[in-house]
Every structure is written in C-alpha cells, then in structure tokens.
TrEMBL record:
Belongs to the zinc-containing alcohol dehydrogenase family. Its cofactor is Zn(2+). The keyword Methyltransferase does not apply. It comes from Streptomyces prasinosporus. SMART domains: PKS_ER (SM00829). Keywords: Metal-binding, Oxidoreductase, Zinc. The keyword Metal-binding applies. Residues 13-359 form the Enoyl reductase (ER) domain. This is NAD(P)-dependent alcohol dehydrogenase.
Length: 362
C-alpha cells in the first residue's frame, strides 16, 4: 500500500477535490504507473455529473501518461522505468478484441465504468474504506494508478508528456475515426462539427488526404486554430450553415465527423452530406431523431464510433509517427496546469478558452 494524491469526486456532480488516498500494489496482470500528465476530457465532466451515487467517492481521469514503477509477475510488455500512455480497458479475449476492435469489447462496461475491477474490488482506499476507481481502466486524476497491462502502451522516452497524455483518448478518437473507420479516398471532402480536442484531432488526421476539410464551431479561436491546422475553412453554426457546407464541398460532403453530441447538429450533418455520404457520430449525448427519407434517398451510412475504433497498441505508435513528421501536432491544442489546480483547468475548459487542458505532475 502506498499513499498517493488523487482528485476525488465525493458525490455525483461534485467538484474534483485533491485528497490523500491509499493505493494497493499491482496484481499479477497489472502495472503501477507514476503519472506525469493527464488530459481532461469532456467525458470526465459529463460522466462525473451523471455518475451513480452508489459508486462514489470516485476518481476519474482517462488520458494518463507516466512512467512504470512496478509490474505484476505476469506482465511482459513493459518494465519499470518505461514511458507509457494509458488507454481504455479491454478483456483481450472476446470476439471484438480478438478481431482487432477492443473499443467494442463485450466486457467494456464492467472494465471501464463499474467503479473498480471486474471482480468488484478497487485498488483505492481512504482510511481503510474503499474509494471507487478504474475509470476507463485507469483513473488517472491521481499521482499513481494501477492499470491492467492491456491498458498500457509504451511510448518513446522523448515524447513530451503533454502530447503523450491526450493520445489515449481524444487523439485516437478523432484521428482513428478518420483513419480507421471512415478511411476517406484521397481528395474526399470531410466536415468536422465541434473543434474541441476530438474534432481537431480529426481535422489533423484528415488534412493530409482530404480536400476540403471544413470545421464548424461557435468559438472564433477554435475556428482559427482549425484553419491553422490545415482546414480550408471554419464556419460558425447557425442559419445558412448547411448551404455553406454544400457550397464548400461541391454539393455535399463525402464525410461528416460529428463530435458535439447535439441532436440538431447531427441532423444538419445529414443534410450537409452528398448522396452515399457517411456520418460518424462521436459525441456523447441523448436521443437523436432523423427523418428517414433523407437517409434512404441519399443512401447515407451512419457510424457510431468509440475510441476511433482503434487497437491502441498498434494505432498509438502510428500517431506518434505522424507527430514526429509534423503531421499530428497535438501540442497545439494543449494548455498545461499543475495537477493541484485541476479546478482551474476544468473552469478554463468549460468556459471555452482552452481546447485540451493537461495536468502535469511533479
């Protein structure tokens, strides 16, 4: 057992409060990681606000990066001292995992959203009382985390911490949707709605082969950043948007990546597609209703995409390679904050002034 610091949500919707906790040692298939950085994602905030009260207090965080401090007896892929990126948990044995699609692991809910391990235990405690964790298999809003080996991906020693952290979720979600699921033909048009961390990662992945790439976002600074990253245009939402998108894409987009989770935006996305166009839905949200006739008449294909449909152990090294070539400059999205200032980082994100806050640890 070791004493750590962690940002705890004591009840659903409560602010993150940094507390002293105890963390158990890794089991045979687990890895102890000392965190160097952790990204904050809108999913952390949305899930915190709707998290079941019976699973609190809870430690969130799912974009961790750090250094391995200890490994269980069965771990072979990493060793103490290795730099690693943390990502979602998967079982490795079900049909989806075996066919290279672990984001759709049949045991994903238990492994990522149960508030602990699959057997109901949690490595976290406070004064002998269990504290829930295991969020996305990690709970990286803490100085240390115990993670199953499948959720740990080695990264180069010279990869900056603020780049390594977002790779595990927002980076691979946006980029993977383009590169793994949509796989656009060279010169295809692609629209991204929502220029946050996920949306701008999709923009960066698309600009090398798509033409045009168009971003949609209400925040002028984010639209400007999308253009800086290679988008041909960046438009505000509102009246006339669909017509403008059709004009820019020569009659309709081949692909739309929808990251906002807003029903009205999803409906606009369908309207902005050309015949046989494809819509990828990434944003967490509620119910979306579509008029079926436009879907049928245009032959629209709708994709639901989690974590970019990526196999992290294979895809994250590819993203690091793109970063080295200057084709995936993830650092342009990042603003760093000390871990103890997590409250300020959350406020900056909620106010729209920061795209991707990343917490740095001592």
């Amino acid at each position: 057992m070791r004493r750590i610091r962690a940002a705890v949500a004591e009840t659903p919707g409560a602010p993150f409060t940094v507390r002293d906790l105890d963390l158990g040692e890794p089991r045979p298939d687990e890895v102890l990681v000392r965190m160097t950085a952790a990204g904050i994602c809108h999913t952390d905030l949305g899930m915190r606000d709707t998290w079941p009260g019976r699973l609190t207090p809870m430690v969130f965080g799912h974009e961790g990066a750090g250094r391995v401090e200890a490994v269980g007896a069965e771990v072979r892929g990493v060793a103490p001292g290795d730099r690693v990126c943390l990502t979602f948990a998967s079982c490795g044995a079900c049909e989806q995992c075996a066919t290279g699609h672990p984001a759709y692991c049949l045991h994903a809910r238990t492994l990522n959203f149960s508030g602990g391990r699959a057997d109901g235990t949690t490595p976290l405690s406070r004064d002998g009382t269990p504290v829930h964790g295991g969020f996305f298999g990690q709970s990286s809003f803490a100085t240390h985390a115990v993670v199953r080996e499948r959720g740990v991906v080695p990264v180069p020693a010279d990869l900056p911490n603020e780049v390594a952290a977002p790779l595990g979720c927002s980076g691979q979600t946006g980029a993977g949707t383009v590169l793994n699921r949509l796989r656009p033909e060279p010169g295809a048009s692609l629209v991204v709605t929502g220029a946050g961390g996920v949306g701008l990662s999709a923009v960066m992945a698309a600009v090398a082969g798509c033409d045009p790439v168009v971003a949609v976002d209400p925040v002028p600074a984010r639209r400007a950043l999308a253009v800086e990253l290679g988008a041909k245009a960046a438009l505000p939402p509102g009246d006339g948007l669909v017509a403008a998108l059709r004009d820019l894409t020569g009659g309709g987009a081949h692909h739309v990546v929808e990251t906002t989770g807003r029903p009205e935006v999803a409906r606009q996305a369908v309207a902005a597609l050309r015949p046989r166009g494809e819509l990828a839905l990434l944003g967490l949200g509620g119910e979306v209703t579509f008029d079926v006739m436009p879907l049928l008449a245009k032959g629209v294909r709708v994709h639901g995409v989690i974590e970019g449909d990526s196999h992290p152990g294979r895809f994250l090294p590819d993203l690091v390679g793109l970063w080295r070539r200057g084709l995936f400059p993830l650092e342009t999205l990042v603003t760093t904050f000390p871990f103890e200032e997590i409250g300020s980082a959350v406020r900056a994100m909620e106010e729209g002034g920061v795209v991707k806050p990343v917490l740095l640890f001592d």
